[in-house]
Write a structure and sequence with these properties.
Structural class: mainly alpha
Helix content: over 70%
Distance between the termini: 55 Å
Number of strands: 0
Number of domains: 2
Number of helices: 9
């Protein structure tokens, strides 16, 4: 089986709920791809491996896999891949309790999704960041971030205008 077939089989196992088996297939595949200098495919596989680790509760391993993938995507100039890895890293950081790093990475991921023209992912990422800010008691930042989310999606003009009222009152918009 070649790398793409192995990757596809691992993803099928993951979707079918066999996350342990998927991770067991992805680990050596990523190592082989790195050894073969296939950095693009290694980054994709590493990101998926990070998701498997995340689902298994192996947060340190997940963060490492996401960071390695992000570095590879950045080296390759792949903004969309870098954004996906950063968004996943932010989710793992949040779950681990490192909220400040998670916020920073969500914000960067949203910017990269914007640059890549991936509006739905940009919206989802800004929304996750807004929710995190809200949970941390930073209401006005949360509103401003949610406004960015709506702008990415081409959201309701009336609702966006309503959101901007408190932001204008304190001089943020």
């Amino acid at each position: 089986m070649d790398a793409k077939e192995t990757h596809a089989q691992a993803l099928k196992l993951f979707r079918d709920g066999s996350v342990d088996e998927a991770a067991a297939m992805l680990e050596p595949l990523r190592a082989d791809l790195i050894a073969q200098k296939d950095e693009g495919q290694a980054a994709e596989v590493g990101n998926d491996l990070g998701v498997a680790y995340y689902r298994l509760g192996r947060l340190d391993a997940a963060r490492d896999a996401f960071e390695q993938s992000r570095n590879l995507f950045e080296k390759l100039g792949n903004a969309s891949g870098q954004a996906r890895a950063l968004g996943n890293l932010a989710q793992a950081q949040s779950r681990s309790g490192d909220k400040a790093a998670a916020e920073k990475n969500y914000a960067r991921a949203a910017e990269l999704f914007h640059d890549a023209g991936e509006k739905q992912f940009e919206f989802d990422t800004y929304r996750a960041l807004s929710q995190m800010q809200m949970q941390r008691g930073r209401w006005l930042e949360s509103l401003a971030t949610y406004d960015h989310a709506l702008a990415a999606k081409g959201g309701s003009g009336a609702f966006r205008a309503f959101l901007k009222i408190p932001l204008k009152l304190i001089g943020l918009r």
